[in-house]
């Protein structure tokens, strides 16, 4: 489906063919601009991540969750000052209800810059992931590290195209990123089990916080939905060979609302098998302050936004405040709120500022 005439109240998420770039770059960029402005979600087909490697990753996922509980708990997130590791089923809430999912947080390779007390605390947010015991799941780490590297490369290329689609030139967003050695991106491997209770909340309505998310739907299940302008929930079914790309609040903020962050949620799977997914969250530089970078868009690009009109209210709960704090600090505060047990252990002062009356029963996912 072409996204060129995406209606304001879209009823399906557009599919963009990355291969079109070779032959019809102008057409691709036009479709991209419409998807960014009018939908905030798109499928990307014919992308550059190796399908053989994706297939290997997909094969590993059930094996990862089938590890003995003690092996999973050996790499639990509360071990990690970087908020990386395993979270049991039901550890997080969104919109007052429990998110019925189990997950591992991993990240791209990165050597932490944080050396000692006195360095900015948010530099400590990034660092080495915890990996499961190689003997229990041989080869998983290598396969998944390669996957992360390739999605990272795709996300860098995509960012340049997005800048072009906004009329800023390919380097128009590069000010938000540091050199690759100073960057780290995060990905979660998520399992949504079949549930029998009254709730079907896999994850409640929310916005992603950053710039871009590259989501691999790793099993053949319905469940992901996005909310259109009219407030209707639209299915985003898995399409083999594609990524779902969606935009976060930070991108919406710096583009002055041109790029839409879209409210989305996941319903628990029906049937007998779990749904699996892998969202990859692209970060911006740890010390970047969004308010310090004002972008100037050409009039023809602003006209696309104006034709769209104002974004209506959605069901999503989270609204990050991007004031004068560096992006790493904004992220760190978000992590403290979603994983108070980790924060209490590794960031006791910040924990006390955010939770003066002690640890809440649950973390908020968004
Ligand atoms: O699992 C999915 O398909 C989406 C997950 C999601 O939106 C998130 O973790 O932010
Ligand atoms: Fe999300």
UniProtKB/TrEMBL annotation:
| Fe2OG dioxygenase domain sequence ranges | 179-284
Reading the lineage from the top rank, the first entry is Eukaryota
| SUPFAM superfamilies listed in its UniProt record | Clavaminate synthase-like
Which UniProt key words apply to this protein? Iron, Metal-binding, Oxidoreductase
InterPro entries linked: DIOX_N, IPNS-like_FE2OG_OXY, IPNS-like_sf, Oxoglu/Fe-dep_dioxygenase_dom, Plant_2OG-oxidoreductases
Q: Which Pfam families match?
A: 2OG-FeII_Oxy, DIOX_N
Q: Does the keyword Metal-binding apply?
A: yes
Q: Which GO terms describe its molecular function?
A: metal ion binding; oxidoreductase activity
Name assigned to this protein: Fe2OG dioxygenase domain-containing protein
Q: Which organism is it from?
A: Crepidotus variabilis
């Amino acid at each position: 489906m072409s996204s060129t005439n995406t209606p304001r109240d879209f009823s399906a998420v557009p599919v963009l063919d990355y291969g079109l770039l070779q032959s019809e770059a102008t057409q691709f960029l036009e479709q991209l601009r419409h998807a960014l402005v009018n939908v905030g979600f798109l499928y990307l087909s014919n992308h550059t991540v190796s399908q053989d490697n994706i297939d290997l990753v997909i094969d590993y996922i059930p094996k990862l969750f089938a590890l003995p509980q003690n092996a999973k708990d050996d790499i639990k997130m509360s071990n990690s000052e970087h908020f990386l590791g395993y979270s049991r089923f039901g550890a997080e809430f969104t919109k007052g209800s429990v998110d019925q999912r189990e997950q591992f947080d991993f990240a791209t390779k990165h050597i932490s810059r944080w050396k000692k007390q006195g360095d900015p605390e948010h530099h400590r947010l990034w660092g080495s992931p915890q990996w499961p015991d190689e003997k229990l799941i041989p080869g998983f780490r290598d396969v998944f590290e390669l996957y992360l590297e390739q999605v990272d490369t795709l996300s860098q290329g995509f960012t340049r195209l997005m800048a072009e689609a906004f009329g800023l030139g390919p380097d128009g967003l590069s000010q938000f990123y540091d050199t690759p050695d100073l960057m780290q991106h995060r990905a979660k491997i998520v399992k949504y089990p079949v549930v029998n209770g009254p709730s079907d909340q896999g994850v409640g309505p929310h916005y992603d916080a950053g710039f871009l998310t590259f989501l691999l739907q790793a099993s053949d299940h319905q469940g992901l939905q996005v909310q259109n302008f009219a407030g209707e929930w639209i299915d985003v079914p898995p399409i083999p060979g594609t990524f779902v790309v969606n935009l976060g609040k930070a991108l919406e903020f710096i583009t002055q609302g041109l790029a839409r962050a879209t409210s989305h949620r996941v319903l628990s799977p029906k049937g007998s098998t779990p749904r699996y997914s892998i969202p990859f969250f692209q970060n911006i530089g740890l010390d970047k302050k969004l308010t310090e970078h004002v972008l100037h868009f050409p009039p023809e690009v602003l006209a696309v936004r104006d034709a769209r009109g104002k974004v209506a209210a959605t069901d999503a709960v989270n609204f990050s405040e991007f004031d004068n704090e560096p992006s790493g600090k904004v992220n760190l505060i978000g992590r403290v709120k979603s994983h108070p047990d980790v924060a209490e252990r590794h960031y006791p002062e910040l924990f006390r500022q955010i939770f003066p009356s002690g640890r809440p029963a649950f973390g908020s996912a968004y």
